[in-house]
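Running this now, will post back.
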Amino acid sequence: MSLSQEQRKRYRTIGHDLHPLVTIAEKGLAETVLAEIDRALNDHELIKIKVNVADRDQKNALIQAACEQTGATLIQSIGRVALLLRKAKKPNPKLSNLTRLSN
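Update: finished.
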């Protein structure tokens, strides 16, 4: 998904107050971790994930793989936390961070 700088800035602003919902550790992207990321993206659309690995290249590879396997777009990555976006076809206004926080 191609996003303008303005859109990315808006998503970063919304994501600022979010807490990581999923943690990826040394074992990497297990099926259960991917399923949880997918569920969180379906519910919330904009989520933070935390990647607890020591190697920077491994961290970047895990974030990239998570985005590719879930169809998400990386909005921002700072330290060990990444902000991911995947718009839902039918967002739930009670759960979606995009509709709930942008109003």
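The radius of gyration is 13 Å. More later if anyone needs it.
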